[in-house]
Amino acid sequence: MQMNQFQMVAEAALESMPQQFQDAMENLVICVEEEPDERTLHEMESDSQYELLGLYEGWPLPDRGISYSGHLPDTIYLYRKPILQFCEDTGEDAESCIRHVLIHEVGHYFGFSDEDMAAIEREPLEKSNVR
Known about the structure:
- By secondary structure, the protein is α+β, with helices and mostly antiparallel strands.
- It has a single domain (3-129), classed as Zincin-like.
- The protein has helices at 3-15, 19-24, 38-43, 80-90, 94-109, 114-129, and strands at residues 28-33, 54-57, 74-79.
- Strands 1-3-2 form a three-stranded mixed beta sheet.
- α1 (3-15) crosses α5.
- The longest helix has 16 residues, at 94-109.
- The protein is globular, with a radius of gyration of 16 Å.
- It starts with a helix and ends with a helix.
């Protein structure tokens, strides 16, 4: 998948999110890059450029206060090469993977931890198993 198609899929995934989330997002930019840079890999303690599929950089919404005004936009990075390699390795559909990574990073924007998001992702499975 070429960069322009990847970008279009990411934009469609963002537009497919529930309106309440879209309405709550402000001062947020979505960037598609080929892969994370060396500084990012070092900061994330990642050994390989293929370990990091996406990244949220910014000030989560619940932590913003009066001192937040004037800040540059928060940024969600989607890394094209690592996502596509992950899809090749796992057989996951690229559009589904892009959407999943984007939603995960938007979750960080809203202040959810990785543990919170893992619990949210498990919730429908847990409820459907209850009889």
